[in-house]
Amino acid sequence: MSEPVLHVSDLRVTFRARNRAVTALRDVAFTLDAGRTLALVGESGSGKSVSSLAIMGLLPKNGSVSGGSIRYRGSSGRVTEITAASEDEMRALRGAEIAMIFQEPMSSLNPLFTVGDQIGEMLLLHSDLDAASRRKRVLDMLELVEIPAAASRIDNYPHELSGGMRQRVMIALAMVCNPKLLIADEPTTALDVTIQAQILDLMRRLQKELGMSILFITHDMGVVAEMADDVAVMYAGAVVEQAGAQELFHRPSHPYTRGLLHSIPRPGRAEGVRLQSIPGMVPPLHAMPTGCAFAPRCARADNICAGPVALRDFAANHRVACFHAEHGVAGV
Ligand SMILES: Nc1ncnc2c1ncn2[C@@H]1O[C@H](COP(=O)(O)OP(=O)(O)OP(=O)(O)O)[C@@H](O)[C@H]1O
Ligand SMILES: [Mg+2]
User: Fold this and answer.
1) Measured at the alpha carbon of residue 314, what is the angle toward residues 308 and 316, in degrees to the nearest 5?
2) Which one of 25, 94, 129, 230 is CB 3.0 to 4.6 Å from 133, fit for a cystine?
3) pLDDT for 128-145, tens place per residue?
4) Which residue among 22, 50, 260 has the greatest number of ligand 1 atoms within 8 angstroms of its CB, and so is best to mutate?
């Protein structure tokens, strides 16, 4: 099998906050194969966004990679170790090869420039097209993301567009240089359900047409079921399970994944019935247990769980970080 587009292993990210160091990512590991969509799921604070910023080389100033590896295989087949790449190398990759869509389009669109200028700017940075060809390409992109009356929208400012339109502009901006890897961090959570479905459709269609790989960050398991080929589940700064989506839904093997799947509302379930949630809390970053971070909440935990636990092969294309994965947990 060819080298994956993205291979993250043992990734550690540390932040300096109020004179102390906190480890936000302890053990992130996942693999994204060419042309596939990998969903990165986990509750708020588990480290999904920090993982994506580390991949983009855009960690905030007080954060740094303190261990592990992020290998990216570019379109030329060249592999870049992102954790060791220079700012110049990263600048060349960002936008052109690796693009990102953020949750809130207003925070990443500049209110002072028209959407056409902003998308055109990407081409100015990463291509040698002249002004007329750039405008033509921007127009094609706006049409590709199905913005109605694109020829007039191209000269609109972001505030003149609806939320769904702005998210389409963000997608056009991310895709204009034909990236190989698209990172989408909760791209549809700010949108209503109908618009969300349209945007997801659009992303799937563009993926098919342009053949890119997608790292799709979400905490919505419904979206995972619709979008993902593979799923990596994060808990407290670590990936605890990765598997093909079907396999994960049918055979979740980490107790945390089972808990997460139990908490999805299902059609047909009587309203008012309390959905099962996992008792207990995620340990704070500065007080992580040395062994399995989920052990304090796990019905199956015993002495062995106090020791270091790492992802291991569980089945074909299925890895899990749990000593007891084979046994299952009654009721969880
Ligand atoms: N600049 C920072 N300084 C200190 N800690 C940070 C910083 N940025 C993130 N963190 C911490 O890193 C951890 C992971 O945060 P992250 O934003 O990746 O979570 P997330 O999984 O994306 O959550 P959400 O679903 O809410 O978006 C959190 O505990 C957060 O407080
Ligand atoms: Mg986030």
Assistant:
1) 145
2) 129
3) 999 999 999 999 999 988
4) 50
Name the 3-class secondary structure at 154. Answer: coil
Judge residue 19's burial from the number of C-beta atoms within 10 Å of its C-beta, 0-12 exposed, 13-18 middle, 19 or more buried.
Answer: exposed
**DSSP result, 193-232:** HHHHHHHHHHHHHHHHHH--EEEEE-S-HHHHHHH-SEEE
The C-alpha atoms of residue 174 and residue 100 are separated, in whole angstroms, by 6
The minimum-distance atom of ligand 1 relative to the CA of 13 is: 12
pLDDT digits 0-9 by tens, 270-282: 444 444 578 888 8
Model-level pTM?
Answer: 0.91
Mutate which of 8, 12, 15, 256 for ligand 1 pocket (most atoms within 8 A of beta carbon): 15
Mean pLDDT of the chain: 90
Give the three-state DSSP class for 238: strand
> Comparing 89-93, 152-156, 273-277, which segment has the lowest mean pLDDT?
273-277
- Cα–Cα distance for residue pair 152/158, rounded to 1 Å: 13
Q: Which one, of 19, 41, 35, lies nearest residue 254 by Cα?
A: 41
The amino acid present at 21, given as its one-letter code, is: A
